[in-house]
Amino acid sequence: MTHRRSPGRLRVGRGLTVHGVRVTGVLLSLWRAATLFRIITLGVCLYLIARWHGLYAHPGIAYGTGAAMIAVTAVIGWLAVTGRAHRPAVVLADFAVTVLLTLASIPAQPAHQRHGKMPTLTTLWAAGPVIEAAFVGAWVAGVLVALGQFGAAMIVRDGYDGHTLVSGVLLLVTGAVVGYLSQLVVRAEQDLAAVAAAQAALTERERLTRSIHDGVLQVLGLVHRAGRDADGLWADLGTAAGEQEAALRGLLRSRPVADPGLLDLADALIAQRRDGVTVSVPAEPVLVDAAVAGEVAAAVREALANVARHAGPDACAWVLLERLDDQLQVTIRDDGAGLAPGRLEVAEREGRLGVAGSIRGRIAALGGAATITSTPGQGTTVELALPVATR
Amino acid sequence: MTRVMLVDDHPIWRVALERELIAAGFDVVGAFGDGETALRVAPAVRPDVVLMDLQLPGISGVEAAAALVERDPAVRILMFSSSGEDADVLAAVKVGARGYLVKSASTAELLAAVGRTADGEATFSPGLAALVLGEYRRIGRDEPSATAALTDREIEILRMVSTGLAARQIAERLVVSHRTVQNHIQNTLRKLQLHNRVELTRWAIDQGLTE
Known about the structure:
The complex is a heterodimer. Chain A is of the alpha+beta class.
């Protein structure tokens, strides 16, 4: 986006990007306020010059200074409105010119008046660069530029008196406070913009979810269902539709978890749903350490793979996730062929640990226990119990 | 003949379900695409069973179910939805729906579930059993003084339903009658509905909504 002539009212997230630097909405408004301050103080200075024209040692220099102030105000104002005044070079140039114009009071004003009550030619107008520097470089820049202006005023006054000191302190406070506040405002605006972006992403996600739910998922669901009563290709199509439906639902269901170290174990298990595998979970997310969730999901995957290998072609499996007071319980049951009594124990004694050993190992490493029970003809049940502090 | 009312906003589903129900001998007294129409027509057609989709345009399936039960506590509502709307399923049974069936269930499962619901039995899918189990455990954690708690037998039965056992198989394993298993299952729903009512009343008192 190039510069725009009339930046709108103060709006979050709006701003101009000029030469790679983004000027946000709030800063633009601040700059315009600073420009207004410059114009008003310019009016005051011009009034004073006109009023005291007879008292100057060199009225020409005073008039010339006034004209220069008009020119500087116009240029800075134009740059501010078009969003280019925030560049450090502009602020430095403004500061330098303002100091020079302040020093022009030395030849313009007679010595006794300079050391007396007559203010410098630039007086309040000289506070402009302090405010601008505070916008650009926070309180540090504000204070440094204020010190510079204070120094220039001291040179004009030939040492400080009470008057100069009060003006100088006010200038320093202005630089510090404006710098601090503008930094705060810009940060707050950035935070607000981040929140608004997150909100927008969430809204968009909800819109997509609704749309997918109302359209694609309904058709997939119906195809899946119709496929159950059909044979051949139609049955395969139905199964494929069911798998896609489950996968899409898993995607839509998964909620972003705020803590990156945590995972919703319910989501991880639901991802393993397919034809013949029913996964049942509580309504609330079951947040656990991401590594723990990965291990438990892997153990469940192994158990399901084992069902597919050994339980028979028509066997179904059910996975149940429960969150008890101090432990997680995952039950994997199938209605397949089951194991002959003692077969598992014999296998373990002979060192053929296989899947059972692998599942037990994973769960034991997490401080839990896996129990495998089986009855021939009635399927196998694997129970995983983990002492996990869920959050 | 069992009078069935169908509420589903998807015409393809509505047509398919209506055809299957009629073919199986049910009297489909209405098939509507939104909860508002269903609520308006229900008093006139007096359905025995309402088969209701959870996600509806306008008022949600849960709100429609709550309004129907409010008007006629005897109405038997079978919620019907795709999986993945867990919180909604739980909300529906808390306001008085008699059961839940996933949309991917086969025609035979659907017809059996509608028949069971008409007979006053609860239709529990493994998913619903897990949700109810989870809800009791949440209540136990969050509200230690809560009125809703399951007996050990009820927990045992819900866990069996959650892992895919049918009421008949559970009765065999526990050596009890099918009727007893059904009673236990219905009790878990009834207590949850009661807890929900108590919660609502307490909330209303807290909000100063009652005198």
